[in-house]
Design goal:
Layout (H helix, E strand, L loop, with lengths): L10 H28 L7 E6 L14 H7 L8 E3 L5 E3 L2 E8 L2 E6 L13 H12 L14 E8 L2 E6 L6 H5 L9 H6 L14 E7 L3 E6 L12 E6 L3 H10 L4 E2 L7 H6 L3 E16 L9 H9 L3 H7 L6 E2 L22 H10 L6 E7 L2 H15 L4 E7 L1 H10 L4 E6 L6 H9 L16 H12 L3 H17 L3 E14 L2 E2 L2 E2 L5 E2 L4 E2 L2
Helix pairs in contact: 8-10, 13-14, 14-15
């Protein structure tokens, strides 16, 4: 599709924004370093993290889910920039940056950094990472997220420029996501396929081993260029049973459970050995429709189902009011969110009317969900609600890896999922979830295609005026709701349980487990 070029916008505004952001980032980073230094000496030990599902891949160019990315993010891999606790972007592998013109961004890199395999980190490493990602032959599902990058140009060993096809306001936010992790050029040259099972980055932890279906272990990077972790090792253990994971936390056999059912909050509060952390999230949970699969290829059927979902009862009955009622695919913490977007109202009479008009009464539809307890409960509530309009729902529960495979390949009708925005910017939602180019693994499991929406999403990518971007996102979000592509259910609130002998970890808004300051008391 030929892109619509946006008129040149005053460069001074963008330059000023970038300079202020860089200055604030540097000051904040220095403050964080001082706080970390004051926290005390390393406590050592192995941190055991228990989780519902295993990773599906460890290659950042092929990861399409947060649980897999959580193994790598800010642990094995690092990007040029990173978000802090308030999701304000800070320097990381790049120490500073500037906007030369509206399509040229220049980054100055930190020196003296090596990858876990001994390869040097420099501008050539940055170039190698993004050339591999952008090469069509790589077939990365993340490629479209970076499609605005025309060239990565090496100026000298510590200076690299990103030359863009068009102005792209949220470039820093996408570089800060897990997809922007910089990979060892040595590993890319010697055996790129091995990166799916053995990641090689610059981060504070080095990959140790992956026992499929059991555990993934990382060890402290003793040559790390930044503040070294307090712990010696972290092991991510796969424990499918919710009750078993919590029991392991309670007894001290494990330390952190970052996938806690909301139904267990009271049990955690009553425990003498457990506590939990809560964090408002960027993600939204939804009931999605495969818009290319009959009978859901008829917008009237999708609208009918949307009108039959009593969303408030799901928030209270399934989630115990953890999280808030969503009104679009963007949470209030995402740039691009609007409180003005309106989902379909609960109206059984309208739902029945639409089904009759579509000649689709007495339907049988499958509803796919992963094996998370809350999502199974939500599926059962939706099954009950749709029975009221004569729609018979068959619930299909599969483990998480199979769920990803099925939605990536379009083997579903309705499905329950969530979109974990990793950047805090609306482009990560809109382009990945709804653009035609993102069908399948890139994120558009709705298989939705609308040329008008595509053009608006592209225009928002290129627009550097924040107010205009917000207007575009509000308008296109309403189009997607009016076409009943999905039913927004819940703005996430992330929960992690931990044994009380653990401190210093935190959850960021994208639901990544941050271990840079974690300590285990004896």
């Amino acid at each position: 599709m030929k892109r619509k070029r946006i008129k040149h916008v005053a460069l001074a505004i963008l330059l000023l924004f970038s300079m202020i952001l860089a200055a604030c980032s540097t000051n904040s980073a220095q403050s964080d370093d001082k706080e970390a230094a004051a926290e005390g000496n390393s406590t050592g030990g192995t941190l055991n993290v228990v989780r519902l599902s295993d990773a599906t891949s460890l290659d950042p160019h092929f990861i399409t889910d947060i649980p897999s990315a959580n193994i790598n993010y800010q642990k094995v891999y690092e990007g040029l920039v990173k978000p802090d606790k308030d999701f304000v972007l800070q320097p990381s592998l790049a120490k500073e940056w500037k906007v030369i013109d509206d399509t040229t961004w220049e980054f100055k890199l930190n020196e003296g950094i090596t990858f876990h395999d001994g390869a040097p980190f420099d501008a050539e490493a940055v170039k190698a990472t993004f050339e591999r990602l952008l090469d069509p032959a790589t077939a990365s599902p993340q490629r479209e997220k970076f499609s605005m990058i025309k060239e990565v140009k090496v100026i000298d060993p510590t200076t690299v420029q990103f030359l863009l096809e068009y102005p792209y306001a949220p470039l820093l936010s996408i570089l800060a996501s897990q997809e922007g992790g910089i990979i060892s050029p040595k590993a890319l040259a010697e055996d790129p396929e091995a990166l799916k099972e053995k990641p090689v980055g610059t981060g504070p932890f080095v990959f140790e081993s992956w026992k499929s279906g059991q555990e993934i272990s990382l060890t402290r990077n003793e040559d790390y260029w930044g503040e070294k972790p307090n712990i010696d090792r972290v092991v991510f253990k796969v424990v499918p049973e919710d009750a078993t994971r919590l029991a392991m936390i309670e007894t001290g056999e494990a330390h952190i459970n970052d996938q806690v059912p909301v139904t267990e909050i009271e049990r955690i509060e009553a425990s003498e050995t457990m506590d939990f952390t809560r964090a408002e999230g960027l993600a939204v949970e939804f009931l999605g429709f495969n818009t290319q699969k009959a009978p859901l290829d008829d917008v009237r059927v999708r609208k009918a189902i949307s009108h039959a979902i009593e969303r408030e009862s799901i928030i209270s009955g399934v989630y115990n009011n953890v999280g808030t009622l969503a009104n679009s695919a963007m949470s209030p913490k995402v740039f691009g969110y609007s409180e003005n977007t309106k989902p379909a109202e609960y109206d059984l009479n309208e739902a029945k009317k639409l089904l009759k008009e579509a000649g689709a009464e007495n339907l049988k539809i499958s509803l796919l969900t992963s094996d998370r307890k809350e999502r199974i409960n939500m599926a059962e509530v939706i099954q009950s609600q749709l029975k009221g309009i004569g729609v018979e729902v068959e619930i299909q529960v599969v483990e998480y890896g199979t769920f990803i495979e099925m939605t990536n390949s379009g083997e579903h009708q309705m499905y329950i999922s969530g979109w974990g925005n990793a950047t805090g910017d609306g482009d990560y939602n809109q382009y990945n979830l709804f653009h035609t180019a993102s069908h399948g693994p890139a994120g558009n499991s709705f298989y939705y295609s609308n040329s008008e929406a595509d053009k608006m999403i592209e225009a928002a990518r290129e627009e550097t005026d924040e107010n205009k971007r917000l207007e575009i996102y509000e308008e296109v979000a309403q189009i997607e709701l009016d076409e009943a592509v999905y039913v927004p259910i819940r703005n996430y609130e992330h929960i992690a349980a931990h044994n009380k002998n653990v401190s210093g970890y935190w959850l960021n808004a994208a639901n990544y487990l941050m271990l840079d300051g974690v300590e285990i008391a004896e």
